[in-house]
Amino acid sequence: MAVIHTLGPKATDSYRAAKQMQDEDPAYQGQAIILHDNFEEVYQHLADFRGDFFLVPTAYQTGDGASWTRNNYRYLDQLTIAKVFHAKTLPMLLTENTSLADHTAITHAATIELLHQFMNHSNQELTIDYAPSKPLVQAAFESGQYQYAIFSKQDFQPTDTLKIIREYHPEMVWCLYQIK
């Protein structure tokens, strides 16, 4: 039976979207969901996953310029769109570690626009690093490595020094490919 490949861990919006799709569409119920550390891992192994499915958000992008748009054309001969749907993501938080003043930030590349809006509004220039998933962004932020971060709300607990600046409630369009 074909499986569904997407971004892990289970705390990602990608995993939640795959589960929602299975709950709403009987055609995908019962298929295993295989989680990967990043989407590029799947793109690089499409030949190994022939016949399977690949779930990607259309906002997908990396810090080095890879994106859903680019890959939709790059892998045209290896992927066929099987289904497109929309779903809310988990609420996202813009956070600050007030014990740091080093003008560093970490985010998932897909949320960079939110960080740019914050930089413009606050009139700051930040050094930005990227992580392949929002749970990894949260882990790096909570370990004290960055002054600012954007990640999914889930289990974040503000403290005296870890503050929430803003909360976002986005929706996402998801593309499920059949791998040829």
TrEMBL record:
It comes from the Bacteria. This is Amino acid biosynthesis protein.
